[in-house]
Every structure is written in C-alpha cells, then in structure tokens.
Amino acid sequence: MKKKLSLLLLALLLFAAASPAWAATPPAPVFGGVLKATINSDPASLDPMLEGAESEQIPASHIFETALVADREGNAQPGVTTYEVQDNGKIIILSVRDGVKFHDGSAVTVNDLKASAERWIANVRFAKTHVGDKLQSMEVKDGKLVFSFAGPAPLALTAMAAWDRGLYVLPASVCAKYPDTKIENADLIGTGPYRFKDHQADRFVLLEKFKEYAPFESAATGLAAPKRGYVDELYFYPVSDRTARITGVQTGEYDIGIGVPSNMLAEMNKDGNLRVEIKELGIMAAAVFNFKTGPCSDVNLRNAILACLDMNELMMAAQGDESLYYLNPSVMPKASRWWTDESLGKYNKMDLEKAKEYLAASSYEKGTPLVFITTKANDYFYKTALMIQQMVKPIGIEIDLQVYDNPTLQQYRNQPDKFDIFSAGLTAKVDPSLVAFMEEGWAGFYSSEKKSRYYDVLVTETDFEARRKAWEDMTKVIYEELPLITFGERTVGVVARANVHNLFDTTEKYYWNTWIAQ
C-alpha cells in the first residue's frame, strides 16, 4: 500500500513539474509591481474625446473615465455618475458619485460634468447626433445634470457610456482651455485608477497608480466591473512590428503582447514561462462595394461575387489558424445580443453555376477590371483581397488589385471614382445603429429606402424588442441589397508572462484589473 502511495505521489510531482506555471490555479490577486504592456504605435495624444485609435484609447482609458459605463451586454452602468431615466427616456439625470476625485485632488462637481458634456457634444459626431441634436435643454438642477429631450433618444445612454469617445469627465478648466483642440500632456487630469506620469515619444507612456481612486462597487461585468488598479506603474510601449511585440514578451522585455502570429502559436504554447489566450477582437473582415456608381452598383454583380467565395479559405488567409476566427455572416460579433445568423442562405454557399447566372443577369462586361483598393498595413486586408481576385476569375470577373498605404486607402474609399471594392474591418459596436454604413455618407455610399426605414426605428424606438425586430429585418436587407460582404469574425492571440494574471475580457483592452504574482 505504501509503495502504491509513493508511486502516486511521484506521479503527481512529475505532472506538476511538467505543467506550465500558468496551468495551476492562480494565487489570490496582489497589489504592487510594474506592468509592461504594448500598443501598436506611439499615441498622437491621450485626449479621450478627440482620439479614435486604440493606441491612444488604451492608455487614455486608464486615466479618464466616462460618466456611465457599458457592461458586457451593452447596458449602461454607473461610472463617474449614477443616472436615472424619466418620462419614457425623454429625461436623463446624471448625479456625480460621492468621493470621486480628479488626479489633482479636487472633487468632481456637476459643473465639471456639464463642461465635459458640452465639449463632448461639440466635438464627437455620434454625441451630437444621438444627444445634442435631440436636446431641448441641458442644465444643472439641484446639483444634478439634467438632459431634456424633445423626443425619444434611445441611444443617449449608449453614447454616454461608450469606450470610444464617450462622455469622458474632465475638469471644467481643461474643457475651457481645450474646447476643440487636443489636450496636452501637462493637462491630462482624469478620475481613473491611473494618473499620467510621462510620455517619451516613440519610447513609452508611463502611468502611475492614483491612490485616492474610488471604484464603484457592483456586480457589473466587463468594463463596468469595479476597477482595482493592482499594479503601481503601468507602461505602454509602442511596438509596430507584431513579431517584435511577441518576441519581446518571450525575452521579458514586455509583459503582454497582442497579435501572436499564427506561425508562432505552437511555440508560445509550449513555453512554460508564457501564457497564450485567444481574445475576442470583434472585427469583421469585409469587402465593401461602391454602391453609388460603376459596375458594382449592380446588385447582380455583387451577388455573383458573393457566390464565388469560400469563407473558410478567406478567413484562413486572413488569420492563418482556425483558432483565430469564427465564421460569422453578421456585421455584429457573435457575443453581441444583436447577433443574428440571417444571410438569406447566401453566406458561405460557394456555387459557381449560381454565380454565372447572377453574372449573366448583370450589366458587367466580361474582362472589364473591377478596381479593388486595399493595403498591406492591415495584412488581412491584402490577403483576402488577393484571394477574392483568384476566386472570381473562373466565372470571368477580372479584378485590378491596387495596393496603397492606409491613409491613401482611407482617402480613396470616400471618392466614388477611385474604386469598385475596398477592404475593410468592421469593428464591434454596442448598438447596430452605430455600424458604420447605417448612417448616410459613409464610404461605399450605401443608401436605400429600406435601410433608412429601419435606421429610423433604431434611433427613435425605445423598446428593445421592437428595436431587435427592426435589426433582424435589416439583416435580411443587408443580404438582399448586399452593400458589402463579411467573411468572418477575427480573434487575436495574446501572450503574457506566466506571472501576469487576469487580462481584459472584452474587445476593449484594459489592464486596471491585471496583477502580477510576486
């Protein structure tokens, strides 16, 4: 019996020794230490209202906080303020929480909140559309900020709670100094768990823990969960080359790297000093048509192209590994409460005979090249465009693939004479009315009576079930009118040192609840 117990103990010890450090149950969270994260590029500024790219938003969101916060389901939760809704959504009242301080030690007041709201409405397009344009008045009453709307404003709370240029709360003095220009480093004063310390261009952004931070205690999820601020200092290193980001984590230069190349996944998973997690990106790889003019304004040609596409092949070309994508016919991520698998039976149904029928019914003249503009700056843009070029060739569609830098692509996609198709990545939105093409005027120029009808319901109706039904109908319209083709949903490999615990669990990337085992 003793021999059997000894052998069992030996086997357990050998298993433990062979297991990577991160495989064991992590110890309890601890405070302290320095966390070294990476971002894609050096931030132009850390103004939370005027910057829309991740390299700016990620550090800025640790310094600044929104009045309200969206939980994982997209519902508004208390942030710097609590809120109440009256008169069927026509009145929203924000109250600053007790004990919330700015990094300069001053208490947040309703006047700071009002100044922030005015700056936000003046500078952020969807704030103006969904809040400012609907306002009858915005005034301070009994120490609270009261928004009174002329009619229903179903997206007002969503806009206020947005991570991407939401209603971030700034000191009134900062709003007055920078009414429509980017806040300079010396005035980066927020309420978040970390305060700004240093920004050395092209080297790092350094934040330090704000010891007087007062988290809002609740059972909320995602971004709305209580913020603990475990580490003492938080570095963000700009590293544009993703291989350099990942190998930097291997060597210990960095603690976290996002975007593990598919050919490095196996190597990373075998390294006991590292942990690899697959995270949701909420980005749908897509090709967008010129809906306004040229050959692709013909819906039959658009349908012919869709019928040529094998979505698995496209997503493998984009991501390089089947663990790094989902097949998804929707423009909303699978994790969203707005997700639907409706595609009128067209998604991932490659049928070259059907494609030929669509092509014959179109006005396309065989041999006429379609101008497809793309960029190698996002390698999945280029790889999927190249694949589509080959997939449509068997039915007689020619594609002239034109590769530009990203700024030129962004410019040309707004000029109808410059393209027939362009590469895109549609990002996750908490509400379908915020999907880029739903508003008039976005690149691709998608405009239709049906789209306008359902968009009007989404931006005026307050009942969720009615809005959900409108969106389900709109997803059918998307595949009927086909302004774009989505191939699937991208995920991303994140590598961290094995002693780094509790990474972000949303499509937004944050580290205020990440801690380091000492």
Provide key terms for this protein:
single chain; 518 residues; alpha+beta; D-Maltodextrin-Binding Protein, domain 2; Dipeptide-binding Protein, domain 3; four-stranded mixed β-sheet; globular; disordered N terminus
Span of the ends, CA to CA: 39 Å
Using the coordinates above, name the CATH class of the largest domain.
Alpha Beta
Gyration radius, in Å? 25 Å
The percentage helix is 25-40%
Judged by helices, strands and strand pairing, the structural class is alpha+beta
Query: Are there runs of 5+ residues with pLDDT below 50, and where?
Result: 1-23
- CATH-scheme architecture of the largest domain: 3-Layer(aba) Sandwich
Biggest sheet architecture: 7 strands, mixed
What does this structure look like?
The structure is a single chain. With 518 residues, the chain is of the alpha+beta class. The chain has 2 domains: 34-258 and 498-516, D-Maltodextrin-Binding Protein, domain 2 (3-Layer(aba) Sandwich), CATH 3.40.190.10; 281-492, Dipeptide-binding Protein, Domain 3 (Dipeptide-binding Protein, domain 3). The protein has 15 helices and 19 strands. Strands 11, 12, 13, 14, 15, 16 and 17 form a 7-stranded mixed beta sheet that branches. A 4-stranded mixed beta sheet has the order 1-10-9-8, with helices on one face. Strand 14, helix 12 and strand 15 form a beta-alpha-beta unit. Helix 9 runs antiparallel to helix 11 and helix 14 (449-460) runs antiparallel to helix 15. The chain starts with a helix and ends with a strand. Residues 1-23 have low confidence and may be disordered.
